[in-house]
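Quick start: what a row looks like.
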Amino acid sequence: MPYIRTMNSQNIFEEMKLFLGAALLVTSLLFFFFFRSARATLISVITVVIGVIWAFGFIGLFHFQITVLTAIIPPLVIVIGIPNCIF
């Protein structure tokens, strides 16, 4: 049982990095293609990355374990946050 938990947590950590990078790349590319402004894209990406860092900080501050559900939070912040930055 401990082996299964260890492998599960390693898989979650690796997939979280993958989804975080993919969400950031895809949404920033779509944002750039729609508005054709590197400056607006860069400002939005920096703002959202700071929000993701804060989300991870609060998860660590409150001593929550990174599970499947908490691993979804950063990609959601990216996907929802980048389009909302323009408004």
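That is the whole record. The chain has a mean pLDDT of 86. The chain has three helices and no strands.
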